[in-house]
């Protein structure tokens, strides 16, 4: 999510302290002076990653520090990952496969591109999953692997992605 | 240095040819055996004669003699074990290697079976007898990856190994990607070109790649993992659509072996960006090592072939001559 605060003395430190206390991961602090803005509304943008359930308590904590939050741009489902799935996708109820990922609440199927050569041959799909955090993506993929094993589907995962 | 060779298949022929063509190496052939005969001469055999006899009669020496006679002759400094691989038991090569080591001879092998089955045991035996065991030719054909791990990257801590370890699979996947072929079409083509065996399952099911991964992992981290410790998925279930969908993401699919001391060993087809160093064409092999001092190192080259694999065997022989028992 993106957090914009007023650029006045002490505000940045006051905003950053609760972020680390709540286990948030700061991705970037962008401190930009826009010449056309009037000097007292300059903002600092903080981009951070945090578990969904800790977001509201964090915002409260930042406000309690006396930091004025100008804008809160929340982008849920920060991580995207595509995998290829091969097998009898339709016959094994692709709707169920998708809803089991969606039911996690922290990950969802964002895109699905299915190729079906013929009714008897296995079909192939590119499935894109979005998740809030990396560990949640890992859990979603583990769940997908489980569903695939159960339905005799082959999953082709990207190389390296999960390790970095 | 006196050399005894067991097994005259593709690699054995390559080694004998190079011994004939490169007398300056100073490697003298004193004994040789194939599955039905053997020839032993402490004063030296002409590798050209051995090859001619093999081509003419199908035998390299006298029927009635065999590997056991060669081993017991003790007319060699190094035993070169090049017999066919048994992926599960490593036999009979494992017994050949143990026998030679126990009799106080160095050993060099291209045989994956025994190295994957019991590298630690063989190394312990070699150390006890003060001799060397080397096996560069077991992984990646001509690519000097074992040398790189043991010598070039000595003192580094290796974090993970990733590699394209089977040329047959890489050829099939390259063709599926380039020409939109189905798996069956690409496999038929690989067979026609001699890149795939009549029974391709050892390659396409990922077993060959897995056994090489076991050898690399055990070499890097001194582990005793076996084939049973590898999570293996082959390429036989891949569709032409899978390659097309990967291409739509500027990626392709390759059979990748992956090992790390913490996350274990895995061989599976993987979606991989086209710009990745492991995306190589045709029957090539590649290994990527991540090391704490050196960073990432990628080695790429011919993963099979008679003379290419002989290069790895001869490199090992010369290393042993130059360094003696520490050559292992």
Task: Characterise this structure.
- Chain A has 164 residues and is α+β, with helices and mostly antiparallel strands.
- Chain A contains four helices and eight strands, in the order βαββαββαββαβ.
- Chain A has helices spanning 11-21, 55-64, 94-102, 134-151, and strands at 2-6, 25-31, 43-49, 69-73, 79-87, 107-115, 123-131, 154-158.
- In chain A, α1 runs antiparallel to α2.
- Chain B is of the alpha/beta class and 328 residues long.
- Chain B folds into two domains: 2-142 and 306-327, Rossmann fold (3-Layer(aba) Sandwich), CATH 3.40.50; 154-302, 2-Layer Sandwich (Dihydrodipicolinate Reductase, domain 2).
- Chain B has helices at residues 10-21, 47-57, 67-73, 93-102, 112-129, 145-152, 167-179, 183-192, 201-204, 207-221, 240-247, 306-323; strands at residues 2-6, 28-33, 37-40, 62-63, 78-81, 106-109, 133-134, 158-164, 230-232, 251-260, 264-273, 284-291, 295-302.
- In chain B, α5 runs parallel beside α10 (207-221) and α7 (167-179) packs across α8 (183-192).
- The two termini of chain B are 16 Å apart.
- β8 (154-158) of chain A pairs parallel with β11 of chain B, so a sheet runs across the interface.
Which structural category fits the helices and strands of chain A?
alpha+beta
The major beta sheet of chain A can be summarized as: 4 strands, antiparallel
- Name the beta content range of chain B: 15-25%
**The CATH topology of the largest domain in chain B is what?**
Rossmann fold
Q: What spatial order of strands do you see in the largest sheet of chain B?
A: 4-3-2-1-5-6-7
What is the mean predicted local confidence, pLDDT of chain B?
Answer: 95
Runs of chain B in which pLDDT lies below 50 for 5 or more consecutive residues are none
CATH topology of the largest domain in chain A: Alpha-Beta Plaits
- Which protein chains make the most extensive interface, counting residues with beta carbons within 8 Å of the other chain's beta carbons? A-B, 21 and 27 residues
Task: List the domain count of chain B as a whole number.
Answer: 2
What shape does the CA trace of chain B take?
Answer: globular
The CATH superfamily of the largest domain in chain A is known as LOR/SDH bifunctional enzyme, conserved domain
Radius of gyration of chain B: 20 Å
Individual helix count of chain A:
4
| Rounded mean pLDDT score of chain A | 82
- Biggest sheet architecture of chain B: 7 strands, mixed
* CATH architecture group name of the largest domain in chain B: 3-Layer(aba) Sandwich
Q: Write the element-wise H/E pattern of chain B from the N-terminal end onward.
A: EHEEHEHEHEHEHEHHHHEHEEEEH
């Amino acid at each position: 999510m993106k957090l914009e605060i007023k650029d006045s003395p002490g505000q940045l430190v006051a905003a950053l302290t609760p972020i680390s206390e709540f286990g948030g991961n700061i991705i970037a602090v962008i401190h930009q002076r826009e010449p056309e803005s009037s000097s007292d509304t300059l903002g600092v943008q903080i981009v951070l990653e945090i578990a969904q359930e800790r977001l509201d308590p964090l915002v409260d904590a930042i406000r309690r520090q006396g930091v004025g939050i100008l804008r809160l741009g929340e982008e849920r489902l920060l991580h995207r990952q595509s995998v290829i799935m091969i097998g009898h996708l339709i016959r094994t109820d692709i709707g169920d496969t998708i809803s089991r990922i969606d039911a996690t609440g922290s990950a969802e199927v964002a895109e699905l591109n299915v190729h079906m050569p013929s009714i008897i041959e296995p079909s192939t799909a590119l499935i894109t999953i979005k998740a809030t955090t990396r560990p949640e993506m890992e859990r979603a993929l583990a769940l997908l692997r489980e569903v695939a094993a159960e339905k005799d589907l082959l999953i082709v995962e990207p190389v390296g992605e999960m390790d970095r | 240095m006196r050399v005894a060779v067991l097994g005259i298949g593709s690699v054995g022929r390559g080694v004998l040819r190079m011994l004939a063509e490169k007398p300056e190496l100073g490697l003298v052939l004193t004994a040789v055996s194939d599955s039905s005969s053997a020839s032993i001469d402490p004063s030296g055999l002409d590798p050209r004669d051995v090859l001619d006899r093999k081509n003419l009669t199908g035998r390299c020496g006298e029927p009635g003699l065999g590997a056991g006679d060669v081993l017991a002759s003790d007319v060699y400094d190094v035993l070169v074990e090049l017999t066919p691989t048994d992926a599960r038991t490593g036999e009979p090569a494992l017994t050949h290697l143990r026998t030679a080591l126990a009799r106080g001879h160095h050993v060099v092998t291209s045989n994956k079976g025994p190295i994957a089955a019991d590298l630690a045991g063989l190394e312990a035996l070699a150390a006890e007898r003060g001799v060397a065991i080397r096996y560069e030719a077991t992984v990646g054909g001509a690519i000097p990856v074992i040398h790189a791990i043991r010598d070039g990257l000595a003192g580094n801590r290796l974090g993970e190994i990733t590699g394209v370890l089977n040329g047959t699979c890489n050829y099939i996947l390259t063709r599926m990607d380039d020409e939109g072929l189905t798996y069956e079409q690409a496999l038929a083509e690989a067979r026609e070109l001699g890149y795939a065996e009549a029974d391709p399952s050892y390659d396409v099911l990922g077993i060959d790649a897995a056994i090489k991964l076991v050898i690399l992992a055990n070499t890097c981290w001194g582990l005793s993992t076996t084939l049973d410790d590898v999570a293996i998925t082959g390429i036989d279930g891949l569709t032409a659509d899978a390659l097309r969908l990967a291409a739509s993401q500027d990626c392709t699919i390759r059979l990748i072996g992956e090992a790390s001391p913490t996350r274990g060993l895995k061989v599976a087809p993987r979606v991989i960006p086209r710009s990745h160093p492991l995306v190589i064409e045709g029957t090539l092999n590649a290994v990527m090592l991540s090391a704490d001092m050196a960073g990432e190192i990628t080695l790429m080259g011919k993963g099979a072939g008679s003379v290419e694999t002989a290069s790895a065997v001869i490199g090992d022989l010369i290393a042993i001559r130059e360094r003696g028992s520490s050559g292992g």
